[in-house]
Amino acid sequence: MTLRVIIFLVLNFSALALGGLFTGKGVPSEWYMQLSKAPWTPPGWVFGTAWTSIMICFSFYMAYIWPSADNKSFLTGLYIVQWILNVSWNPAFFYFHNILAGLLIISILTVVVGYFLFHYAPQAKYKSVLILPYFLWLLIATSLNGYIFLKN
Questions:
Q1: What percentage of the chain reaches a pLDDT higher than 90?
Q2: What CATH number corresponds to the domain at position 121?
């Protein structure tokens, strides 16, 4: 179990680090500051705290469901899709300033994480609570991205 947790921590935080390379100045950037943002947009520090907590929880979640997955190839593929989408949002949104592409990416990512939550719930049981922060955060982040798309 410990080795699986470590592997998923490395994978998940490498996704955040890789995505972060394309964020540039990110939230305090001039481009982002000039956008019309949703009234429910949290302060900038919340994003880093949220993603750190989410990736820790998601790492434990993946380590728990891995041994009980009937189809490891499917789970691996689903995880890879999630990883690529997670990494892709930052460059689409912050580097290329493509708000629509960011919205599409984060919407698909939300569906994928929702699939994890509901599909693996019978196996994960109460441990499904570990992926719930990821899913809820993506719902919020998707609404923030959608608001920016509609208002800019």
A1: 81
A2: 1.20.1260.100
Mean predicted lDDT score pLDDT of the chain: 94
- What count of other Cβ atoms lies within 10 Å of the Cβ of residue 133? 17
**Max Cα-Cα span within the chain:** 48
List all residues 6 or more positions away from 142 whose beta carbon is below 8 Å from its beta carbon.
103, 106, 107, 110
- Rounded Cα gap, residues 141 and 94, in angstroms: 14
Count CB atoms within 10 A of the CB of residue 87. Answer: 19
Judged on CB neighbours under 10 Å (0-12, 13-18, 19+), 70 is exposed
Number of structural domains the chain divides into: 1
Question: What pTM, to 2 d.p., does this model score?
Answer: 0.93
For residue 27, the SS3 value is: coil
Range of the domain at 74: 2-151
**How many other C-beta atoms can be found within 10 angstroms of the C-beta atom of residue 116?**
22
Alpha-carbon gap, residue 140 to 110, rounded angstroms:
10
